[in-house]
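Worked problem 6 (solution included).
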Amino acid sequence: MRAGRVEEAGALAKLIGRDMQLRCKSQLDMIDGKTDAKSMWAAVRQMTGPKPDVASVDGVNAETLNDHYTAIATDNNYTAPTRKQSTTTTQTAFVSDWQVFRALDSLRPTAMGLDGLPAWSLRVATTVFCRPIATLFNLSLVTSTVPLQWKEASICPIPKTTSPKLVADFRPISITPILTRIMERSVVRNFLYPAFLSPPPSLTFSDQFAFRPTGFTEAAIIRSCTQLPTYSDLIRT
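Solution. The predicted structure is:
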């Protein structure tokens, strides 16, 4: 796609789509819809229907989910970084006012976090908020400190299986404050993406497809099926 070979990339996407259709068709062909319509519709709902509600699963509630997510997200060996000292005269501008302005001005309707700050208010007052928010972002990066309010999230559990029974069968989707998401995108764009393009000698990202500027699921599938040597070969395609 990056090389402009859109037709070839589109052809690969069509092949993957066709294989997905054949996979679904093969599963439905094993059921006789004329004599067992109930099983047929159950299989269709399993592929396209809504996910089960968390409240309908026995033994799974907010408390059990909170305990589970706390356990898997806690690192007992974690050591908080030492807070650095910074002044306004020595502060480095990792994030510019213009970058924050563009991020706020292009905000789409999205869920707000626990801070109760909606997207429309940030977008309407972009010209007023862009400079102080950029200052907060840079101060957070320079001092290696994240405000407590930006780390709080509302967790929405999503089933990972068609018939969840345990708390581990639910994937946590964290709804963080909008400012946190903008801050994360700035860190990814300014620090992580450059590391992918010029990694240190001790690291290699040739087999990584997620969390990249041009990473996509189809590339990982093609790599596993065709055994292409590197990620760059797929991007050139």
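Discussion: The chain has a mean pLDDT of 81.
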